[in-house]
Amino acid sequence: MIEEKFDAIVVGAGMAGNAAALTLAQRGLKVLQLERGEYSGSKNVQGAILYADMLEKLIPDFREDAPLERHLVEQRFWMMDDRSHTGLHYRSDDFNEERPNRYTIIRAQFDRWFSQKVREAGATVLCETTVTELAQDAYGKVIGVRTDRADGEIHADVVVLAEGVNGLLGTRAGLRKRPTADKVALAVKEMHFLPRETIEARFNLRGDEGMVIEAAGTISRGMTGMGFIYANKECISLGIGCLVADFQRTGETPYGLLDRFKRHPSVAPLIEGSEVKEYAAHLIPEGGFKAIPQLYGEGWVVVGDAAQLNNAIHREGSNLAMTSGRIAAEAIFQVKSRKDPMTAENLSLYKKMLDESFVIKDLKKYKDMPALMHTQSQNFFLTYPELVSKAMQNFLRVDGTPKVEKEKTTFKSFIKARSWSGLFGDAFRLARAWR
Amino acid sequence: MSIEPSVRVEDKLFYNRYLVDAGRAHIKVRPHTTPSPELLSMLKACPARCYELNDKGQVEITVDGCIECGTCRVICEGSGDIEWSYPRGGYGVLFKFG
Ligand SMILES: Cc1cc2nc3c(=O)[nH]c(=O)nc-3n(C[C@H](O)[C@H](O)[C@H](O)COP(=O)(O)OP(=O)(O)OC[C@H]3O[C@@H](n4cnc5c(N)ncnc54)[C@H](O)[C@@H]3O)c2cc1C
Ligand code: SF4
């Protein structure tokens, strides 16, 4: 047993854990961070878009040495059917600013850099250590952790659970339930390497400019899901994810879906000739506001994906993770400064502060979205993309059919597929969930 | 109709780096005679195709290629079909990019 007692133990060195450990160490607390990977990042998977604002709050001058790939000047949304895509593109030179707002990153490299900052702030970081369970006293209060190392149990006043989406320790200790198949998505992704110039030419980029494509439609074969293509400096991150419950129901394979996406006529030319260097898979919390578990208790708080803090509609997760990690650390620091014990009552400050932040406010805004997307997945991911594609083709093809006829055909195809009430119902439900 | 080329997951896993903890599987399938629907769904849902059917019609797991996503835990742990944990510290998949 490690005799030393810590002010705080942080489990996990991902976005949430690094933010928490950094903040605690910066405030002078004695922190131990435990990570099961060989190094911070070696188990972590993301698209990945980094949102600068939330990192700036932790490391204001991060642009000086963080491993950033490209700053985003363009976003493309694609609605896809099997042979086409209808796109909405937004590109602006305003994004070529001194302090860009969004970057692509490569998580394994970024986390390693982040972890170095945590060490520099004074935290003790122990990698290659899997925490196997929480140590609790006779009353159920969390007093530390047990690891798979020979020296077993380590004690602290408070444990910050930043263990990611699977949240194994929290479930084992009965603090929250295991995520269910309708509340998490499984994403698979590959890293495609190409010469820098090729990437810049294919995606219309100059220098360190970047762009990302978010894609939805028949690529998910009627399941609730999305694909993505993100440009890094010398590689392209490409992946697709769908609800685990949908994989279970349909018997689609994740790698089959990924390969179909890669072979799509709109996608194949973008990655042609590339060398694949990695294949990864990871879960993403998709349950939104209604899936958020108890966030604090006697001697513990939970942050990031482990608390299901993920905004699937906007593909934001790392920023919610960083922010919840930072806020939890600030709350712990306040309790500690008052020399109060780390009871559930005192730690409820964390939830109070989080409720006031964008994290909970945004998740609340979209609270009905996950259920809607799930129950209506056939319509949103199969029927509509196909209808839109037909409508676009009908609009663009010049074949001697009078325009009035063309519009009628398009109109009829929509009514036929979804009926008046279906169309209005979907539009209404979507508007209400978005509000 | 074009024919779907079959995807070889083994080729994909070949890109990855692993440190295999020989003799200590971090996921175990409960012995059974007939697999549950949950367990059967893993033949398709596991992104690394770790689950396979043996010639007696039972589901077996080989964890060497596991990418530690947790999908099988979400689907099968509740029904008691599997025991799921992480590999020991430092073992398992090692992402270079992630
Ligand atoms: C394919 C994909 C694309 C995504 N794209 C984006 C995006 O573009 N932008 C965005 O903002 N978000 C994105 N996300 C979401 C984002 O990745 C997550 O929200 C974020 O990583 C959550 O951070 P975290 O620290 O909570 O969890 P993680 O980053 O998962 O970190 C958890 C850490 O805890 C460690 N750990 C777990 N259990 C133990 C244990 N028992 N003992 C020791 N260590 C343990 C793990 O090894 C890991 O290092 C994406 C996710 C995926 C899967
Ligand atoms: S954790 Fe994921 S990769 Fe590993 S066996 Fe389970 S489903 Fe397959």
Structure report:
By secondary structure, chain A is an alpha/beta fold. Helix content of chain A is 37%, strand content 26%. Chain A has helices at 15-26, 52-56, 107-120, 168-172, 196-203, 244-250, 254-263, 268-271, 318-337, 344-355, 358-365, 369-375, 377-396, 403-418, 420-434, and strands spanning 5-11, 31-34, 49-51, 68-80, 85-91, 102-105, 124-126, 131-136, 142-147, 153-161, 184-193, 209-217, 225-231, 235-243, 275-285, 296-297, 300-302. In chain A, a hairpin with a 3-residue loop joins strand 13 and strand 14 (235-243). The longest helix of chain A has 20 residues, at 318-337. In chain A, 51% of the residues are buried. Chain B is of the alpha+beta class and 98 residues long. Chain B contains three helices and six strands; from the N terminus they run H-E-E-H-E-E-H-E-E. Chain B starts with 8 loop residues before the first helix and ends with a strand. The mean pLDDT of chain B is 94. The interface between A and B is large, with 57 and 40 residues. Bound molecules: flavin-adenine dinucleotide and iron/sulfur cluster. Residues 11-17, 34-37, 43-49, 130-131, 162-164, 168-169, 187, 189, 239, 241, 282, 284, 304-306, 310, 315-319, 321 of chain A line the site of flavin-adenine dinucleotide.
CATH topology annotation of the largest domain in chain A: FAD/NAD(P)-binding domain
- How many individual helices of chain B? 3
Number of domains of chain B: 1
Annotated CATH architecture of the largest domain in chain A? 3-Layer(bba) Sandwich
Number of domains of chain A: 3
Classified in CATH, the superfamily of the largest domain in chain A is FAD/NAD(P)-binding domain
Which regions of chain A contain 5 or more consecutive residues with pLDDT less than 50? none
DSSP strand content of chain A: 25-35%
CATH architectural category of chain B: 2-Layer Sandwich
